UniProtKB/TrEMBL annotation:
Keyword Signal: yes
Gene Ontology MF annotations: polygalacturonase activity
UniProt entry keywords in alphabetical sequence: Glycosidase, Hydrolase, Signal
Organism whose genome encodes this protein: Dinghuibacter silviterrae
Family note: Belongs to the glycosyl hydrolase 28 family.
UniProt-recorded name of the protein: Polygalacturonase
Gene3D superfamilies: Single-stranded right-handed beta-helix, Pectin lyase-like (2.160.20.10)
Sections of the chain in a coiled coil: none
Signal peptide boundaries: 1-18
A single GO BP: carbohydrate metabolic process
Keyword Signal included in the entry's annotation: yes
Amino acid sequence: MKTLCFVLACFLLTGARAQDKSEARSTAGDVRSAQDYVRAAPFPMALPALPELRQGIFLITDFGAIGDGQALNTAAFSKAIAACTQAGGGRVIVPPGLWLTGPIRLASNVNLEVQRGALIQFTRDRTQYPPQGSNPTPLVYGENLHDVAITGGGILDGGGDAWRPVKKEKVTDAQWKAMLASGGTLSNNNTVWWPGTEAKDYRPYMINLVGCTRVLFKDVTFRNSPKFVVDPNKCTDLTLDGINVFNEYYAQNGDGIDISACKNVLLYHCNVSAGDDGICMKSSGDWMTAPDSAALENVVIAGCHVYHAHGGFVIGSNTDGGMRRIFVTDCDYVGTDIGIRVKSNAGRGGLVREVYVDNIFMTDIVHEAISFNTYYEDMPAGADPNKRTAPKPGKTPIFTGFHISNVYCRGAAQAIALTGLPEMPVHGIYFDRVRISARTGLTTKDARDIFLRRVSITTEQGVPLKPEHPDDIRVVE
């Protein structure tokens, strides 16, 4: 077993400031309020504005809803939301019960309050989800709304097992046999099972809000989604507070929380277990037209737990809209494939900078504790892994200005892997107070200006540090 400790001679000023704030939190005791986390961010940001909602109450049972798990309540939900909107807004109450429904279309000034004991079960009848573009209607959706919320201690179940393909390699023999016995369709190579009558990837998102302002998700549980679970896109002033997201570990494309091209975002005390990325930042657009801005910016992720997922905190793969001012702190990742995962490729990339990751605790990470990968490629269900496509030219990923501090990991296949492109190396990455035990250590390929300060890597095999070139990493023992 080999251990490597480094002390960095020079450290970027902004990184040092972020470190000072971390130390202030640790000496001040438990600082856990959302306001304190936002204030601790190493960039100026205010708490996202919350929805302004009236107190009117609209009980779905007053509009014909029956909570027996048999009656279809799509119309009742629609009528209750319409009445709430017509009255100027308020709370659409889902009381305890089992509420079967098709898609729910939200509206401005509406809080869908799913009370503890309430279980919204989305029907597995595919005919209830008519096409919207190239996908079926999302389970819960809205566009260009303002002042909208989903709250309460209840559960929304997406019935995703009626939609999702399953790769044989991801399930046990008993599970695979049960799926085959239930019907469905096999891929040509018999390695992917589809629940429908054809091998076609046609699935709705679960929660899909686009272009909305002042959005709140609080205390609810979202589970068993056909595809991505919580997927806000191009939203401003977005708060996710104390929500639980659960998809089966074998859920194909079952991302937990995807924040796509949003601004002024707080994820606070959320719990995620997913079949794909846990908490993921995405961004699409043309950042070159405004180099001082980004499609995704001002994001604070604090006090969150991620269990099974492809990555605990993830950036990408779509980064071409640009990202900046992201602060991740006080989070735990247990058993994720990768802990901190930054990914993109030529054709999907853009400028990602001003990312601060601090106070992260990880254990039993399957692959890398920390990974930067600019050769990421989607592998849809049924795709031949031997027929990978070449990356598209243009839209080059630029990963720079990352500050990763106070990260502790016990158990990983590899400590850190940094892989850039020959034409655009990963660069300007700062590590401070990082301690990792792993089978292998730190490697670089097309990476430069990687700074290590107070870093300890303990390996079972090989040397703790194996850069492609000796000067890729700037360290002093």
